[in-house]
User: Fold this.
Amino acid sequence: MEERVQKIIANAGHCSRRAAEEFIAQGKVRVNGRVIKLGDKADIAKDEILVGTTRIEGARRVYLMLNKPRGYEVSMSPLIRKSVMNLVPQDERIVPVGRLDKNTTGLLFFTNDGDFANRITHPRYEKEKTYAVVLDRKISKEDIKKIEEGVHLKDGFLKGKIKVYSPTNLEITIHEGKKWIVKRLFFKQGYYVKELSRTRIGPVKLDVKIGKWRYLHQREIDQLMR
Assistant:
């Protein structure tokens, strides 16, 4: 897949994207022996890319899942002590895919593959996301029906498929990834979500203990990229 050359150089860990742009502007970058200009693209899998005399090799693609604990923030800021970045390998150039709020636990993906992140987060791919929910009181059949048929919120018409395990413990599956969407769906019907945990994205289920992580299997990556 072709990408802008400065992005390829930065993703390979050779230097920052800004520095890569400066190298290109200075005529120090060649693709297949040809000096390139800013905006030119290349395919790291097919093309020879040289910065000076250094050949750029493709960055190793990384995909992992974390079981996010309560109280941790999904943030890249080094100033935040309880950041999810402190729970995953520090030597990997990865970012979290999407968000979970501070008090929500569960499945969170990390990657350095922008296409993968887009597949998970962009609404057009309609990746199902399942959450375990604990409510402050018993939910009625009427309110379950309302949520399953759809609720008008300020940012659109949204709905979810509900499976009830007990009057206050249930599971909801949605396609949307909007901020606080599960909490807002239930709050609209007069319920407060006491506990919320994401348990599945697409076909991939959370299967590591709280605070732990693992690399995704190739089969899981392939399924999520469909």
Summary: The CA atoms of residues 161 and 176 lie 12 Å apart. The chain has a mean pLDDT of 92. The chain has three domains: 3-55, 62-125+210-226, 128-201. The first helix runs from residue 5 to 11.
